[in-house]
């Protein structure tokens, strides 16, 4: 390893901060940066327990992908491939999501983002410091290493789940980079392929798992989901592959990880499914930074003190969530969930038998675009909105793939009759996991920010709420979920 391998431009403050973090093994920085050691050719997490190298022999990198691209190999002690995922800016997340969905195909990734291939390559390289092709090659190697060390998949299943199309090429690539055959890197690989995969999903910081489960339990459609006080489960269909998964918290003492178990006959969908589950349970949030930004408000500060592990619940399927959000306009959670259940039973396809009693898949847009929604207890205006939305989504779903700020999407969607700013921001907040989305007109937010016991006419106005929320950017979605939670504390 050449000691000329460059460290990306960092400010003096950043270098000092990173140096303090690695010397103290500060767990808050785990996944935020990686350390390349030029004398050994190894890169580590800042929490690595080995003796810290001299500063002149250290290079800092924002991601494991970049560190590996620069020629460093993952440490066998701290296992950097298992570090928490970094929280990306919105546009960075969209660019990367397109590349992963299309498995490194830059042309299709550019189309996904409605960009030219040249624009996509330029923006990606500026955001991540490597080209899309370089990122994809390193990403699938790290994904393979993660699955080898952190799942029960067979070698063949790991090969295809991590994006390789040839077992021979997979074996060669792993051995060339990591110096060992995949079978020697694997921890618990079964001799034969199985229809069940178990994967650990690490996170960082506080996580109130019971509170997250209670949120989904109140909104569960029992035909597609099964929620208990310890487990979340649901059926899925991804790229014509069906199955179901369960998620529990790791039972290993002090281990910050969820345990995902996937039941399916095609593990090529694993990267997409893992990404969706991580988003659904907000596993990549840095709550320390978020709390510092939104904690100035008294109501929010009380929630942070009482439930510091409250995270932003996402969703598994965007289209499904948009339907449920439209149903939730001016309805209680219970009523909206009942209506969603009726739609699911009326138009969804039956799922394969499973031990949890789930019976249906939620209907996709191909099934709902021709639905009449009659006999389900919906008002005519709500039926008109659903029909209009299904038609719009069919022709314009790419509007969610790449945007700079939710205001751009809002300006477009509010032109549709029955879709207002609350709905758009709720789409973004939970459907897209946009951290800055903010349904300012939500009654719960209004109540939380108004004087207790005041008359409706005396409640805080929307203009005042938006002005107040400026200080919470770019984490206004978290402010919203904490304000909702404050109502239960203050009751």
UniProtKB/TrEMBL annotation:
InterPro entries: Ada-like_dom_sf (IPR035451), Ada_DNA_repair_Zn-bd (IPR004026), AlkA_N (IPR010316), AlkA_N_sf (IPR037046), Alkylbase_DNA_Glycosylase/TA (IPR051912), DNA_glycosylase (IPR011257), HhH-GPD_domain (IPR003265), HhH_base_excis_C (IPR023170)
GO molecular function, one term: methyltransferase activity
EC number: 3.2.2.21
Cofactors, names only: Zn(2+)
Name used for this protein in its record: DNA-3-methyladenine glycosylase II
Matching Pfam families: Ada_Zn_binding, AlkA_N, HTH_18
Limits of the HTH araC/xylS-type domain: 85-188
Annotated catalysed reactions: Hydrolysis of alkylated DNA, releasing 3-methyladenine, 3-methylguanine, 7-methylguanine and 7-methyladenine
Entries under PROSITE patterns matching the protein: HTH_ARAC_FAMILY_1, HTH_ARAC_FAMILY_2
Keywords noted in UniProt: Activator, DNA damage, DNA repair, DNA-binding, Metal-binding, Methyltransferase, Transcription, Transcription regulation, Transferase, Zinc
Annotated organism of origin: Thalassotalea eurytherma
Domain of life per record: Bacteria
């Amino acid at each position: 390893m050449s000691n000329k391998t460059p460290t990306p431009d960092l400010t003096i403050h950043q270098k000092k901060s990173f140096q303090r973090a690695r010397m103290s093994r500060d767990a808050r920085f785990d996944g935020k940066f990686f350390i390349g050691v030029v004398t050994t050719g190894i890169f580590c997490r800042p929490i690595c327990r080995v003796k810290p190298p001299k500063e002149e022999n250290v290079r800092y990198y924002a991601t494991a992908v970049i560190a590996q691209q620069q020629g460093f190999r993952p440490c066998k002690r701290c296992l950097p491939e298992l570090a928490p995922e970094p929280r990306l800016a919105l546009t960075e997340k969209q660019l990367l999501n397109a590349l992963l969905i299309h498995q490194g195909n830059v042309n299709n990734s550019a189309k996904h983002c409605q960009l030219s291939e040249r624009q996509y390559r330029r923006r990606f390289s500026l955001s991540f410091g490597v080209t899309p092709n370089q990122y994809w090659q390193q990403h699938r190697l790290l994904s393979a290493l993660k699955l080898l060390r952190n799942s029960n998949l067979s070698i063949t299943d790991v090969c295809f789940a991590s994006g390789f199309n040839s077992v021979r090429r997979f074996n060669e690539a792993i051995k060339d980079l990591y110096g060992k055959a995949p079978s020697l890197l694997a921890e618990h690989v079964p001799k034969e392929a199985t229809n069940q995969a178990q994967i650990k999903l690490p996170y960082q910081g506080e996580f109130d798992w019971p509170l997250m489960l209670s949120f989904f339990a109140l909104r569960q459609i029992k035909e597609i989901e099964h929620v208990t006080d310890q487990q979340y489960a649901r059926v899925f269909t991804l790229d014509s592959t069906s199955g179901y998964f369960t998620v529990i918290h790791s039972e290993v003492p002090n281990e910050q990880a969820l345990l995902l178990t996937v039941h399916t006959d095609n593990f090529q969908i694993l990267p997409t499914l893992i990404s969706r589950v991580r988003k659904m349970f907000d596993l990549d949030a840095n709550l320390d930074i978020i709390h510092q930004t939104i904690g100035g408000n008294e109501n929010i500060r009380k929630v942070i003190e009482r439930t510091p592990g409250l995270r932003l619940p996402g969703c598994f399927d965007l289209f499904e969530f948009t339907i449920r959000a439209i149903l939730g306009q001016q309805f209680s959670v219970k009523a909206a969930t009942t209506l969603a259940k009726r739609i699911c039973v009326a138009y969804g396809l039956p799922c394969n038998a499973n031990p949890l009693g789930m019976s249906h898949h939620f209907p996709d847009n191909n099934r709902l675009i021709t639905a009449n929604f009659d006999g389900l207890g919906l008002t005519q205006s709500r039926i008109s909105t659903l029909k209009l939305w299904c038609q719009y989504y069919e022709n314009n779903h790419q509007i969610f793939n790449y945007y700079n700020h939710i205001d751009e999407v809002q300006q477009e969607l509010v032109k549709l009759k029955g879709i207002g700013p609350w709905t758009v921001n709720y789409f973004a907040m939970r459907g897209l996991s946009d951290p800055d989305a903010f349904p300012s007109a939500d009654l719960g937010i209004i109540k939380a920010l108004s004087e207790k016991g005041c008359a409706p006419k005396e409640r805080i106005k929307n203009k005042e709420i938006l002005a107040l929320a400026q200080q919470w950017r770019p984490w206004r979605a978290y402010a919203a979920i904490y304000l909702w939670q404050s109502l239960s504390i203050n009751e």
